[in-house]
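Feature request, filed as a ticket because there's no other form

It would be nice if the structure record came with a short human-readable summary line next to the tokens. Right now we just get the raw output. Example of a typical job, pasted below so the devs can see what we mean:
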Amino acid sequence: MNDKDKELLAGCFKGEIRAREAFVIRFSNLVYTTIQQAFKAQQVPYIRQDLEDLHNTIFVRLLERHCRRLRQYKGKNGCSLPSWIRMISVRTVIDYLRCRSDALSRTSKLDAIEDLKELADERTEQWTILDRAEKMRFIEKGMEVLLPRDQLFIRLHCFKGLSMKEIAGILKVSENNAYLIKHRAIKRLKTILNPYLKPN
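Raw output as currently delivered:
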């Protein structure tokens, strides 16, 4: 993170109005672009009002509660501040679309549970005897401790059915890197869940 952004964040954390206004101006174009890309990736039509509403919601989320979400940004694993804001923006759009059942009526390209069958070895009896709802609860619980990018990837690819190409566009990475992210995300999730799936 460059010195200018560090100074901007410090001002936001202190509650300085000018710093927060500058923060919004600095990242407005990024947020607008990310919202549009997320809508297109989901194949959902939108109007200007949708963009405006989501733009405002995203900045409220970032700055509310003494910038709680911004304070979670640590710059680890090469994640830049713009990438962090992009992740928050995509997740906000997904939450928004989840509330619009008409927008999510299309059939998912993938099945969340079947796509995550790599989570447990075929020999792991506990995994095979869990019903779908129980598996979903395990996955959701395990995802709580994953890195934000890993959470976002699994939700976009496995829960929302986006292709690797679509996700690569949203995350601003190559398609090959998207496959690497998938492998690492599922490997981390498997590491988290496997202790609970071992035979007693």
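Something like this underneath would help us a lot:
The CA atoms of residues 174 and 189 lie 22 Å apart.
The two ends are 47 Å apart (CA to CA).
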